[in-house]
Amino acid sequence: MTASTALPSSFPRVWMITGASRGIGARIAEAALAQGDAVVATARDAASIERRLGPSDALLPVALDVTDEAQARHAVGAALERFGRIDVLVNNAGYGLLGAVEESTADEVLRLFDTNVFGLLHVTRAVLPAMRARRAGHVINISSLGGVRSSAGFGVYCAAKFAVEGLTEALHAELAPLGIHATAVQPGYFRTEFLDGASLAVAPRVLDDYAASAGAVREAARRINLNQPGDPVRLAQAVMKLVASPTPPLRLPLGTDTLQTIADTHAFVAQETAQWRAVAASTDFPVQEREEAQALSAG
To answer: How confident is the model over 157-190, as pLDDT tens digits?
Structure first.
């Protein structure tokens, strides 16, 4: 049964959620199932999804390594064959990398971008043809507080989230005329397994010169783990409200820490821009030269 011949789904919405066996992905899947939606939940180990979420006719566990583009296309095909459509894509699969930029090896950086950025692209490209055909859908990319502002110790991870932000902003502009929404969700520190070894890689190389910056963040991560202020259950409910909105935002910050980071970042940018405005403006051609050039081109 293909997407075009699949029976119409009786579920209000069909979700596809990557990285759904634990953390934020599992919480969103649980919330979607609880409100009567269908969920295509993916993880590298499909069995781990059913262990976490339990068996359900509304649940389709699919094994997916997002770094494999062929697997992404296969997973989307399985979703369309089972439910006939995908209304909401949640690109959640990813992990963190803790270490100074110089401490991070080329292989570590490539692996992280392969999952957090290129994996997101693989799945999104696989899902969009079906959404475009229906002129409906919502792509939700899980960004981060680190997609708002980078920090010592998480530079590579934040760089990947900056990429997710840029991709989402472009998708928002490209998909809106087609009736499809795109949103970057920006969680702060939520009490999930993110800072555990399963979701956070730590650069093995430690340079003493970074002890006061990246090194301090390593120590802070140990203290914060499982003491984060954000409630992942409430996060999942916020995502349900996001999807139910007829006018969803381009960005949805979640957590008071993200809200504070946005305010601090805007204030810093405004202050620094004001300080350097004269230098910034001095790089244009003088107005008279521009007018003369325009006159010559018009003539």
So the answer is: 999 999 999 999 999 999 999 999 999 999 988 6
Average pLDDT, the chain: 91
Separation CA 150–CA 142 (nearest Å): 16
**What pLDDT is stored for residue 196 in this prediction?**
60
Q: What is the pLDDT of residues 90-101, one digit of tens each?
A: 999 999 999 999
**Helices 120-134 and 155-175, axial angle in degrees (round to 10):** 10
Tokens for 203, please give them: 């650069």
Please give the Cα distance from 227 to 229 (Å, whole number).
6
Residue 10: which pLDDT band, with cuts at 50, 70 and 90?
A: confident
Would you say 230 and 254 are in contact if contact means Cβ atoms under 8 Å apart?
A: yes
DSSP per-residue letters across 71-109: HHHHHHHHHHHHHS---EEEE----EEES-TTTS-HHHH
Q: Phi-psi bin for 135: left (phi > 0), alpha (psi -120 to 50), beta?
A: left
Q: In sequence order, what are the beta bridge partners of 197?
A: none
Token reading at 262: 């946005």
For the question of residue 189 being annotated catalytic, the response is no
Beta-bridge partner residues of 43:
63
Place of tokens 């007829």: 246
Residue 161: active-site member: yes
One-letter identity of residue 275: Q
Q: Helices 155-175 & 106-113, crossing angle to 10 degrees?
A: 30
Dihedral sign of CA atoms 111, 194, 229, 89 in order: positive
Tell me the sheet residues that pair with 16.
40, 89
Q: What is the pTM of this model?
A: 0.90
* Set 21, 104, 157, 210: catalytic member: 157
Rounded mean pLDDT, 84-94: 97
Which amino acid would we find at residue 177?
A: P
- 3: which DSSP letter? T
Which one of 21, 104, 143, 144 is the catalytic residue?
143
Q: What is the pLDDT of residue 266?
A: 97
Q: Is 144 a catalytic residue?
A: no
